[in-house]
Amino acid sequence: MKQDAVPAGATGVITIDLGQLGANWQALAKLVHPAQCGAVVKANAYGLGADRVVPALARAGCRTFFIATATEAHAARRLVPSATLFALDGLLPGAGSDLRRAGAVPVLSSLAEVREWASLVEGQAEKVPTALHVDTGLNRLGMPEHEVEELVRDSRILDRLDVRLVMSHLVSADDPEDPRNERQLAAFERLRGRLPRAPASLAASDGLMLGARYHFDLVRPGYALYGGQAFRGGPTPVGPVVRVSARILQIRDVAPGETVGYSASWRARRASRVAVVAAGYADGLPRSLSAPDGHAGGMIAIRGRPAPIVGRVSMDLITVDVTELGDLALERGELVDLIGPGLTIEAMGSAAGTIGYEVLTRLGPRFPRVYVDEAG
Ligand SMILES: *Cc1c(COP(=O)(O)O)cnc(C)c1O
């Protein structure tokens, strides 16, 4: 990816490859055909910028988008006037007409939500477009079985609903060996069979890798579209979309015995060279990437070669041991990679004791997002 377009004064940059994003959506759409492929673009498209990501996915062919909130629904609606929008957080009390104005269908997770949503068309001939979330074991959102049964018995409410989607969500889809997957699949088959006939959706990024039985009518990947590889059963057929780079501010020599950074947590054992890089936890670099003495922390890459973070990650800065890169003649202002070729989002997540999803969605607002299209 070209990085010469980065403003000279920008301490870092997040480069987002919209061509690869579209190619990822198309690869997943092909994999799940004849099921349809939607796209989850909640949380500002996982932090990458819904205003650019949503139109790029629409150009690739996507017609169904999942957001979480009414605010996100309005933003998406402006970008894709005719797409189907499902709001995963469902219906907050009193928020129904706002969701209707956004042309979004809330994914309803309780009988209370269903009743309130149905009341919007009370006394009218019109039915209200609805998505129903049934719980199959996650015990997060979703109607439990007894609520599904109660709803099925209540024709006054059911008659007002135009059910567009019945969905559930998997507990351990990243692990194809987990027997919960099969149990949830069976529970989903049973519960959707109780409800009015409607398109069904069970799989997100990892679930769609579990095979065609999990695809139903619509899959709803998010993370994989952005290049995420969380499925432990093998690689998802997507490529990296995100590169995060920051500039070297200075390079200093550290004598043996000297310490580097706050709390003097790292001590040089040899004559060392340390690069000070302009990225910190305010930019979304987890502080748990810190590498106090004797402990491995995060890695970055400089011209494709690995270099370890040493000492504490601070708000705006990290310190990196570049002693082994003595042959490179590193330059002040040079961009180095925090996430990029050979440095996956997952690697940063696991080095930080978290997951790639969290790393991705917490990338800070300080680095400009630069959109490229390497494919097109
Ligand atoms: C966030 C979310 C998704 C997308 O999950 P990924 O793992 O990012 O593909 C799908 N379904 C529901 C209910 C979600 O909350």
Descriptive terms for the model:
eight-stranded mixed β-sheet; 376 residues; binds pyridoxal-5'-phosphate; alpha/beta; 11 helices; single chain
Topology of this structure?
Elements: E1 12-17, H1 18-32, E2 36-37, E3 39-40, H2 42-46, H3 50-60, E4 64-67, H4 70-79, E5 84-87, H5 96-101, E6 104-108, H6 111-119, E7 128-133, H7 145-153, H8 155-158, E8 161-167, H9 180-194, E9 200-201, E10 218-219, E11 242-254, E12 259-260, E13 266-267, E14 272-277, E15 299-302, E16 305-310, E17 318-321, E18 335-339, H10 345-351, H11 356-361, E19 369-372
Parallel strand pairs: 1-19, 2-10, 3-4, 4-5, 5-6, 6-7, 7-8, 8-9
Antiparallel strand pairs: 1-11, 11-14, 11-18, 12-13, 14-17, 15-16, 16-17
Residues 40, 42, 88, 169, 204-205, 220-224 line the site of pyridoxal-5'-phosphate.
Structural shape:
elongated
Q: What's the SSE pattern?
A: EHEEHHEHEHEHEHHEHEEEEEEEEEEHHE
Whole-angstrom Rg: 24 Å
Mean pLDDT: 96
**How helical, in percent, are the residues?**
25-40%
**How many runs of DSSP E, i.e. beta strands?**
19
Number of helices: 11
* Helix/sheet category: alpha/beta
Query: How far apart lie the N and C ends?
Result: 13 Å
Strand content: 15-25%
Largest sheet: 8 strands, mixed
Low-pLDDT residue spans: none
Q: What small molecules does this complex bind?
A: pyridoxal-5'-phosphate
Provide a descriptive summary of the structure in words.
The protein is 26% helix and 23% strand. It is built from eleven helices and 19 strands. The protein has helices at 18-32, 42-46, 50-60, 70-79, 96-101, 111-119, 145-153, 155-158, 180-194, 345-351, 356-361, and strands at 12-17, 36-37, 39-40, 64-67, 84-87, 104-108, 128-133, 161-167, 200-201, 218-219, 242-254, 259-260, 266-267, 272-277, 299-302, 305-310, 318-321, 335-339, 369-372. Strands 1, 11, 14, 15, 16, 17, 18 and 19 form an eight-stranded mixed sheet that branches. A seven-stranded parallel sheet has the order 3-4-5-6-7-8-9. A two-stranded parallel ribbon has the order 2-10. Helix 1 crosses helix 3. Pyridoxal-5'-phosphate binds at residues 40, 42, 88, 169, 204-205, 220-224. Residues 40, 42, 88, 169, 204-205, 220-224 line the site of pyridoxal-5'-phosphate.
